[in-house]
Predict the structure.
Amino acid sequence: MVDFNRVWPGKEKGNAAEQQAWLLWNNLWAGNATLFVDMHTQSRGTEYPLFIYADYRNPQVKQMAELFPADQIKADPGEKGSVETTFVENKIPAITLEIGKPKLYQPELIARSLTGVRNLMVQQGMTAGTLGTTAKEQKTFIGNEMSSIRAEVGGFAEVLVKVGDSVVKGQKVAVQRNAFGDTIREYTATHDGRVLAIGNDPLREPRALLVRILFNNPEPQCADGC
């Protein structure tokens, strides 16, 4: 299986996904965009809040991200082959906007996403008006590193925290049980931070996501994301 968000800007003679990316990049996006917002949701069986990946090394990307009333922002150096990173590498400011859960209509998250897009259009002079709610008013949590707590074995998982919860290092965040109800694993928070994502499908295979924590790493090399 090919991850379509890891093959950009594609290849003219690559596999099907790479060719599709190449056609979109070379025949539509490149040369026609000055800013880009790549909209996603989390994958099936997991959930996000309204969340943004943004390369804070680029001041214009930082400004774009903070025009959105997101719940959380990850200052992020980017992921090679993603749409967002490909744009940034080509001097076109871009962010990735994750709009909550997959396969579910979430009107409040959609409304805040639209507010952010409109804020961006107003700030760019594309439309008249005043800014609506931004990250500042939303009190968006901004972190520079993530930690993913994954199932060590297969089993039935009970996640004990919700997306957006504050957690402290050592706090129990999930347990796994076998088919007889016996507890086979307990999992604790790796850092003080905010719950960014959870696995909401109770059946978890080994290495499946249980809890992802967004936190702030004080090391200087992580100032703009690790």
